[in-house]
Design a protein that fits this description.
- This protein is of the alpha+beta class.
- About 40% of the residues lie in helices and about 10% in strands.
- It contains 23 helices and 8 strands.
- The strands form 2 sheets. It has a 5-stranded mixed barrel. Strands 1-2 form a two-stranded antiparallel sheet.
- α2 packs antiparallel against α3, α7 runs antiparallel to α8 and α21 packs parallel to α23.
- The longest helix has 14 residues.
- The protein is flat.
Length: about 550
């Protein structure tokens, strides 16, 4: 479905030992479309929040239903019954509880002014309305805008009104309001500069206009503001957050990393390319250490030749956070990314520096430094070992040096199954016994950042392999153990039963298929028979590629 993704609360096929739960999350709605969807658009100052019961709002764990009163309220679209408005909406429950589903929700601060897009319900009092939709979009607070002023809007386009309010909020003396404006200007200016394309953004403002409005705040005295501005000016490039590393490796690596969402391969650090001098000056200035370190990573993918000497200097900075951030930039400066330097960095006393070393090798796709990653696989720190494994997995085992490392680590208790998957994607027959074994065992790696559950991947690799074999070989019993492994179905860990059944029917294993069908129907918590019946009608359509 175009522009709609599954937002995974417990990650489908990613996090082991949990049954996946998910709900559809659509992209943000353009401002004109948002205005058209609203029966009522008003602006007012929040004066009270009252918890209420409203049967039109389902009970959702972690959230309450509130009625927020705004006074005075000025209608931009539609009519209000009086000079106030009562807006019903989900709000986060102040009591900390776990949540499986997150609806569209809002938290209004008393005394602040907001622009609200609402639905006017038939039969309600003229001054009572509610949120437009219940499921949130990619923009978590869409439908409400914090305003810099409390008096009515001029008659302008929604785009102009949003631009004026957000750019005025950049001048606020309240750091929280400035950060709000920065993040929302970012969201309203979709750009290939973002790590995930434009899903969480809309193209209301020109990206260069937003960068021009924000870039001066990278030197703001409040660190939260400066860092929010750096995140935008640095285009959220993949060097800026550790949790993005495996996705960038999957994007730029020579291997196929199953189950990892890929970032935009054409990603450009637009802000970094324009404002690199200002960003570099922050690193060399007197900002706090966290801001200086973030400024270093904000230069990721810039590759400005005249920064090479600065990167060299930052590698020796007295602050460890600045140093380990600079290590990541080695991926952008090949002349600095020497084997000797990586060897030395792999023994650095700072754990984060060793993590950066592992990722930098993968970011630069420097297979000649795989021996350094092999050393880091034995590091005392689990996060270092994880970074080393993820970087190694970004290299293709078509490289004999990489294949040897994977083979040598097939007994590594943390990553063996991941290395096995990498090898079997290229040549399953060479490790068929282990592939069968892992499909049966359904091993969960002890130290990995996520991705497709390995047993799910091994079962699909095994299925694909068997599908390619002559029917006579399957009928001979040669692959009975492999078929046994595929028949050990577990949701999210295995090929679904109807596909295994279709394979057995296709290859003339009628007796086996009938027995498997009966066993699966007996043991499954779901109704599988309808799927088996569909296979009977058209087996070829259930043979996976």
């Amino acid at each position: 479905m175009k522009n709609v993704r599954w937002f995974l609360i417990t990650t489908l096929l990613l996090i082991p030992c949990l049954i996946a739960q998910g709900y559809l999350e659509g992209p943000p709605v353009a401002l004109d479309d948002l205005a058209n969807k609203a029966d009522l658009i008003f602006q007012g100052t929040a004066v009270s929040n009252t918890t209420i019961t409203d049967p039109s709002f389902q009970s959702i764990m972690g959230f309450i239903v509130q009625e927020t009163e705004f006074r005075p309220a000025f209608a931009v679209k539609g009519k209000l019954g009086a000079s106030n408005a009562k807006f019903r909406h989900y709000a986060p429950d102040p009591k900390p509880v776990g949540m499986m589903y997150e609806p569209q929700s809002y938290a209004f601060e008393i005394g602040k002014s907001y622009l609200v897009f609402a639905k006017q319900l038939p039969g309600n009092a003229a001054d009572t309305c509610q949120q437009i939709w219940m499921n949130h979009t990619g923009m978590m607070d869409e439908g409400v805008l914090l305003c810099f002023r409390s008096f009515p809007f001029e008659r302008r386009s929604m785009k102009d009104l949003f631009w004026r309010d957000l750019t005025e909020l950049l001048k606020s003396t309240d750091p929280k309001e400035v950060v709000y404006a920065i993040t929302h200007l970012d969201e309203f200016s979709a750009s290939i500069g973002g790590p995930w394309g434009s899903f969480g953004s809309v193209s209301e403002f020109q990206r260069l206009d937003v960068l021009a409005a924000i870039h001066g705040l990278v030197t703001h005295p409040d660190p939260t503001v400066a860092q929010a501005a750096l995140a935008v000016v640095g285009s959220h490039n993949p060097y800026m957050k550790r949790e993005h590393a495996q996705y960038w490796l999957a994007t730029i690596g020579s291997a196929d990393a199953p189950g990892f969402t890929k970032m935009d391969p054409k990603m450009v650090n637009e802000g970094g390319l324009i404002y690199w001098r200002e960003i570099a000056a922050i690193v060399d200035g007197k900002a706090d250490e966290a801001t200086r370190a973030l400024a270093v990573t904000a230069l990721g993918l810039v590759r400005e030749p005249s920064l090479q000497d600065s990167v060299t200097r930052w590698l020796g900075d007295p602050n460890a956070a600045v140093r380990n951030s600079a290590v990541l930039l080695l991926a952008d400066y090949p002349a600095l990314a020497t084997h000797d330097r990586f060897v030395a960095l792999s023994s650095d006393a700072d754990t984060e520096t060793r993590i950066s070393t592992a990722y930098a090798i993968g970011f630069a796709q420097l297979a000649d430094n795989a021996d350094v990653l092999t050393k880091l696989l034995l590091d005392a720190d689990a996060k270092v070992r994880q970074a080393a494994a993820m970087s190694l997995l970004s290299f293709s085992p078509k490289d004999e040096r990489i294949a040897k490392i994977f083979h040598d680590n097939l007994t590594n208790k943390e990553f063996a199954v991941l290395f096995l998957v990498a090898l079997c994607q290229m040549n399953p027959s060479a490790n068929l016994d282990l592939l069968i074994q892992e499909t049966i065992k359904k091993t969960d790696p002890e130290n990995w950042p996520g991705g497709q559950i390995p047993a799910y991947t091994t079962s699909h690799l095994l299925y694909k392999y068997l599908k390619a074999q002559p029917a006579v070989d399957l009928q001979s019993g040669k692959y009975d153990r492999a078929l046994d492994a595929l028949e050990m179905w577990q949701p999210n860990y295995s090929v679904d039963p109807q596909f295994v059944y279709a394979l057995e029917i296709k290859d003339g294993l009628t007796k086996r298929a009938k027995k498997f069908r009966a066993t699966a129907n007996k043991n499954s918590p779901y109704d599988l028979e309808i799927y088996f019946q569909r296979v009977d009608q058209n087996p070829d359509s259930y043979l996976m590629d």
